């Protein structure tokens, strides 16, 4: 099945809003074996919409249009599609009541412009949006399907999952592909490819599809079977091989973050964690508490950006700070041990580094990071030289620190 995505909105083209919808749709449709052949972003201009829709109708089986369904004058998608499909707008009383209830629930007054959102194409199937005021619309023409959805990501995603995908599966008899994703941290794509070369050859012979999905500090390995979940066991067996071969890198499955993985591990051990951060400025603590239930293991964190606070809050000696500098193994160790005592926890992650873009020296260039972890069995350190990009250095420091803790808890050697 051939699908196309049309994103409508001037704000997308001028960079005011990032078009996350197209990326999400590509991933979601791929789960069901629906191939996106093209994605286009266009302006809120009638002629552009008509031309692009006509092009896609001639080339694709299924088209998703996002954006331009709001209550303001520049939202012209509904009117333009109504014209294209040769129908008319009429008041949909059921939708009007839903929109009115939407505002009543929130104690707000419904404006005339919102009433206009209940004016919908007579010959379209209306998809109820339970999360907003703009309904989705399902059009059919010459065996082709076009679905128009609101551009607000969480509204669009809910409509895709609850309304669109079930209908597409029914209309086209789609069973869907089966995907599983293995999450790895701390290894580069080229190094990983070299290590698993033989494994990769075997999975291709089995008819499975492999995708490397790298990002900063992480790699996702996605295996896909076009036979649906018939080959779920086979995929899991292949991933089990990598878990055994690469335990220092493999930490989880299917979009699980390293912080979630470590959190579950700490909870299973009934162990507690604290953080003491310099170069990451609280980012590691924030990542650990981003998921509910973190209070079961996370006790608290300290941000000791200055030397004075390293000394005052974590009892780092002034002698060490003067002799070795704030970015050093010695200071990282003292931070971890001091944090462990102050926070009264089993494990403490301490990080100190030069995030950049300035502050580096020949001896300690930008990207230099020391990670120390205090455990019930002592304090352990790792040293990294990441690069010159401040944001990536901060992000990588958190990822590598969390994985370092995971390895220590599990007794995994590099």
TrEMBL record:
Species of the source: Brumimicrobium glaciale
Gene3D superfamilies: 3.30.70.2860, CinA-like, MoaB/Mog-like domain
HAMAP family hit by this protein: CinA_B (MF_00226_B)
Classification of source organism: Bacteria, Pseudomonadati, Bacteroidota, Flavobacteriia, Flavobacteriales
Family: Belongs to the CinA family.
MoaB/Mog domain residues: 4-171
Entry protein name: CinA-like protein
NCBIfam families assigned to the protein according to its UniProt record, in alphabetical order: cinA_nterm, molyb_syn, PncC_domain, PRK00549.1
Organism domain of life: Bacteria
